[in-house]
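In the lab's daily routine, each protein ends up as an entry in a very long ledger. A line of letters takes care of the sequence, but it says nothing directly about the fold. The fold becomes a row of whole numbers, each drawn from a learned catalogue of backbone shapes. The protein below has been through that process, and both of its lines are reproduced in full:
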Amino acid sequence: MPLSSVEQTLPEVQRRIKAIKRLTKAACLLSSETKKSYVAQLAELVSQQHQIGTNSLVIVNRVERAQQLFAQLKKQKPTAELLLVHARFRLHERRQLNQRLQQAAPEAGRIIIATQAIEAGVDISSKTLFTEIAPWSSLVQRFGRCNRYGEYNQTGGADIFWIDIEDDTLPYAPEDFALSRSHLLSLESVAPAELPKVTAEQAIHPVIRKKDFLDLFNTDTDLSGFDTDISQFIRDLGMPQLRVFWRDIEKPQPDEPQPLPGELCPVSMGQIKDYFKDKERAAFVWDGLAKTWKKIDQPFPGMTLLLPARCGGYDLESGFDPIKKQAVPVTLLETAQTDDSYTGDQDSRKTKAIELPAHLRHVFEHAQHLVDQVHAQVSGKHAVVTAAAWHDVGKSHKVFQHTMLQDDRLSNEKLWAKSAANASHQRRYFRHELASMLAWLINNAEHPQRDLIAYLIVSHHGKVRLSLRAMPDEKPPKDKPHILYARGVYQGDRLPEVTVLDQIMPATELRLELMQLGETDVMGPSWTTRVQNLLREHGPFELAWYETLVRIADWRASEAEQQNGTENLQ
């Protein structure tokens, strides 16, 4: 949104749009002839131009070049603090880098070597900026990282040095530089008020269509256990990438925990191929169907690889680097879970045991309070609070109660929603929210919001949402091999009577016909048909909003129960 004429006259705005940013062509060039000496020349120029007590920012177009420049500057042992910023760090190191970037420059100043990863989302300002030539839109973003607030206007302004490239234009196309070069050669200042308008055609990138967007609303994994890759819709990645993580092992066993987001490090295909040049190095990929880790010698884009920590390939200061041979420090930010995360029910393991009817009422009360606070629409409010009241009736299932009663302090004459039992369910993949949803549908056939409430019930843990199917290695009971089954729930399972607020849900036989395509006389339309109708009627944002409200109500009630026991929570 453009600034109004009044806003443009504000002193703070004027200081920024007229920030002093002198533009000069750097005394170095990247070409096939200078390729070997380029990094050393650039490092010398950066050292000469750096000013004590300020940030100097150097942006290059490739991670490998940034790492080489960082290593070259380290050899010079400057008094200034050195930082390297690019996208091939683990989350833990990225967080540490972000924290350091937000701190004031030390007395000797700071030299930051970065790739285009710093163009957006990083609030940083420098007095001296070196940048390799790039598409004009990228250069404008980079200029914004120099004298960003006009803070150097009173001390002589800031300087930007641009570096021309004749060869090695990756990750950009050579034609991307033509317009940029013409602008750069004609400008002496790149203050926002003096930048020329961009008239070039926009680059072609993957665009998310409505169908793609609706498909992405389904967060279920595919039949192989892998998530949908959304990276193409987030930013231009250039060359295909994969992800790696490290563990202190020689060869992973089938129960080796799956990686958490904080462990993962994005890697280019070129770098991972360099990693494999050392024949003593190993890499493993998870086979979702065979449920085991398999050693591989030929990586493919999109893979997630487990690397033995002893094999190296990572440095805390420079990120993924196949040259590094030292063992990699293993970082586990959270308690890793195995690929059998669908079999557990961590949220039901609490210090204080809570009876099921009490928990249903508590979540209902928190949901009521929450929808009032956010001023939800009447129809949405009713769906959320009703789903909250029914969300855990499936915990009355004998499989769930058997797990809860592993805490031998509890009476089997009551139904429990939470206990201190640290045990797995007898049936692998058992999901109590699926049993809750089926019980709701069977007992509320005429309710006008029947399907919406069913969706909110079954989705409140995020394990079952738009698709209803058995897991790849899930098996039916041996004595009934032909019955329907999914997520640990079998056709014909029975739930006992459950008190839901001031009513009694009668003993209920669960039926799974809706997991099949088409319509049946017993359960009506399939689950696929129901959720597709909900998406068309409510849209993904409204469904996600209602789903979030139910989850938050459940979290708040569960937390309050552990603090207050079963007392009234309001």
